[in-house]
Backbone:
């Protein structure tokens, strides 16, 4: 049997002058069509390009949020192979093309230089593909040398330092190698943190918990469409509430840690515990509408897109969110985060309290849609970018 890992390692050892033409030949034989970088209306004084990861479709949504300012136009790019869930993006390019096609890189860089004013690099990944040996520092400098203003966006695992997270969170998913080799992640994250400090560009983080690792960064809240998730179903009206948990990753979300308590409550007939597999995003609003409680995550101590979608749907969200995150959210939004606090240890107790004080928790859930409109509908993200990046002299 051929070991693909060995093949991958051998391929990565090849010098670019060997691997680039080989990859280009493979693409040509396979008939790969290389998409052109979007050109934008030059009448807009601020023209932004974001890439290359578009996690959870956020770069695309941040771009649309920025365009609510008539002076701004924005486009984004994602590596096609990494967009498995089909999130919207303005440009999807295969990683092999980005890494090995010299003609694409020349065209891409020329379009950025001649058509855009601001560049945002996501997750410390090489926006210019294989150019400059995939060295992000050199790529940023090349963009700056050509007159472009550069900003950096960190998303999560790229800058959350495992050793620091373990110190702060008893249930941290970095306490062992169950999810991934922690020593390796520590090295990668530390390199990314060093890179951000060296580049010295305006830096943004997508969730409040990441400010612990990058204290000089600015919060760029995740963006969702509140109306897409809205419904008129009353929560906690069923005698046996439906408790929904849909983990994107069972290990990092703490699924295995909370399952015993949830199965126990289900066996007692107190709740109906639901874990539906294989859902598309289009199916999610209807599922939220028939749920009462959504369990988000119990290890990261932060919240993201999934929790925002649940709150926008008016569901009662129960999750572990640190006081640091809640303080930042309170400062940014002016209101408390309407996520009920629970840990692995306290989840059973919290849900039993929900069952006995339904009126109180129904009021908490009812605050969710307004909170999402206040902090996560794109207006706050646009204001953060305008204040700290788009209209500065840096």
Residues:
């Amino acid at each position: 049997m051929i070991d693909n890992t060995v093949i991958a390692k051998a391929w990565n050892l090849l010098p670019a002058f060997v691997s680039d033409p080989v990859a280009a030949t493979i693409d040509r034989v396979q008939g790969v069509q290389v998409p052109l970088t979007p050109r934008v209306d030059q009448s807009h004084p601020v023209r932004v390009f974001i890439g290359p990861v578009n996690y959870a479709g956020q770069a695309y949504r941040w771009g649309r949020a920025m365009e609510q300012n008539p002076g701004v136009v924005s486009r984004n790019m994602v590596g096609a192979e990494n967009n498995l869930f089909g999130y919207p993006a303005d440009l999807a390019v295969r990683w092999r093309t980005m890494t090995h096609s010299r003609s694409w890189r020349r065209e891409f860089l020329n379009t950025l230089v001649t058509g855009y004013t601001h560049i945002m690099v996501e997750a410390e990944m090489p926006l210019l593909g294989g150019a400059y040996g995939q060295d992000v520092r050199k790529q940023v400098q090349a963009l700056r040398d050509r007159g472009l203003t550069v900003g950096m966006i960190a998303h999560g695992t790229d800058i959350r330092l495992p050793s620091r997270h373990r110190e702060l969170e008893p249930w941290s998913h970095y306490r062992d190698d169950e999810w991934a080799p922690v020593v390796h992640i520590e090295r990668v994250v530390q390199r990314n943190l060093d890179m951000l400090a060296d580049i010295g560009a305006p830096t943004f983080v997508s969730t409040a918990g990441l400010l612990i690792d990058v204290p000089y960064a600015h919060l760029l809240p995740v963006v969702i469409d509140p109306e897409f998730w809205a419904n008129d179903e009353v929560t906690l009206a069923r005698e046996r509430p439906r408790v929904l948990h849909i983990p994107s990753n069972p290990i990092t979300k703490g699924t295995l840690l909370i399952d015993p308590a949830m199965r126990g409550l289900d066996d007692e007939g107190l709740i109906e515990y639901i874990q539906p597999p294989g859902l598309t995003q289009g199916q999610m609003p209807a599922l939220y509408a028939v749920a009462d409680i959504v369990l988000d995550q119990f290890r990261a101590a932060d919240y993201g897109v999934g929790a925002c979608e649940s709150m926008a749907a008016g569901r009662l969200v129960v999750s572990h969110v640190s006081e640091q995150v809640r303080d930042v959210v309170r400062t940014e939004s002016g209101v408390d985060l309407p996520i009920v606090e629970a840990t692995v240890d306290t989840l059973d107790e919290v849900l039993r309290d929900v069952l006995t004080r339904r009126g109180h928790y129904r009021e908490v859930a009812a605050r969710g849609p307004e909170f999402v409109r206040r902090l996560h509908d794109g207006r706050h993200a646009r204001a953060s970018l305008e204040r700290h990046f788009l209209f500065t002299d840096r």
About this structure: The mean pLDDT is 92.
